TrEMBL record:
Residues 3-83 form the GST N-terminal domain. It comes from the Bacteria. This is Glutathione S-transferase. It comes from Amylibacter marinus. Gene3D superfamilies: 1.20.1050.10, Glutaredoxin. Pfam families: GST_N_2. InterPro entries: Glutathione-S-Trfase_C_sf, Glutathione_S-Trfase_N, Thioredoxin-like_sf.
């Protein structure tokens, strides 16, 4: 089994987030290849995943699949024991319908509130069309949670493809402070606290790509997800506590400090993704708490 996934910017590409979660959330091994959107590198990456013209695109044992819903269904069929769809037939039917509606709908929310995991705009004023999208999403979340969500914080209790498809919507509610109800707020919090999402966002912050046109001229608030441990990159590794990178096992070359303690990684990206949200990384926390 050999899987590859092409993605764009982690901070802004909602479709890439969906594609990546389809693998990460269900422990399906994949080699991820990322490139900054709108760059020559991005065009080169897509050339290697023809006939796809957009991300995400997956190569599954040599076959390219280039649509998130198609990737989801193909993975569910290949891995029937991974739990990608709910096992209950009625829940599974509703999950499919909700995923399909998100896949093809909510154009006003997508257009006016692009995914931006770097920002929080508490004074954003949504249009009537965006408010209508928010109301519909809130109703869908409440319906699924009330009927099928007793076994966990997700739409159908356990995490499923439906949650993958609504993850970017949850981030939009958080970024733009969009209205929802108590059930919706709890569901959004579940996404912002979910370990795979936290790692995705941390990697986006580590990439430090700031794409023109995604930020808006409004006052900013603090990110509404869990507050990370305070960490900072440093040059001096003389007091480093670990000699090998927690991710690769290679010798440490880049350093960061938390509460006066110095730790190391094998490259700048590993350092910066850890600095962005140290508690999101089990490998690092094993060293930190050890």
């Amino acid at each position: 089994m050999t899987y590859e996934l092409a993605i764009g910017d982690r901070t802004y590409s909602s479709w890439s987030l969906r594609g990546w979660l389809l693998f990460a959330a269900f422990d399906l091994p994949v080699n991820v290849r990322a490139a900054r959107m709108y760059s020559d590198e991005f065009k080169t990456l897509l050339m290697d995943f023809q006939p796809s013209r957009l991300v995400p695109a997956a190569r599954l044992d040599g076959t390219v699949v280039w649509d998130t819903l198609a990737i989801a269904e193909e993975l569910a069929q290949r891995h029937p024991d991974a739990g990608l769809w709910p096992s209950n037939p009625r829940a599974r039917a509703m999950a499919r319908a909700m995923s399909a509606e998100m896949h093809s709908g909510f154009a006003d929310l997508r257009t006016d509130c692009t995914m931006n995991l770097r920002r929080h705009y508490p004074s954003f004023a949504p249009s009537d069309a965006v408010l209508a999208n928010c109301a519909r999403i809130t109703d869908l979340w409440a319906s699924a949670r009330s009927e099928f969500g007793a076994d966990g914080p997700w739409l159908f209790g356990k995490y499923s493809i439906a949650d993958v498809f609504y993850a970017p919507a949850a981030t939009r509610f958080a970024t733009y402070d969009l209205p929802t109800d108590e059930i919706g707020s709890a569901y959004i919090d579940a996404h912002l606290n979910e370990p795979n999402f936290r790692r995705w966002r941390a990697m986006g912050l580590a990439e430090n790509y700031v794409q023109p046109g995604y930020d808006i001229d409004l006052p900013e608030g603090e990110w509404t997800g869990p507050a990370p441990l305070s960490a900072q990159a440093v040059d001096d590794g003389s007091d480093v506590e670990n000699t090998h990178c927690p991710y690769s096992g290679d010798p440490v070359t880049h350093f960061f400090k938390i509460e006066g303690r110095v730790f190391g990684t094998c490259n700048a990206f590993c350092r910066d993704k850890t600095v962005a949200d140290p508690a999101a990384w089990d490998q690092f926390m094993a060293i930190y708490k050890g």
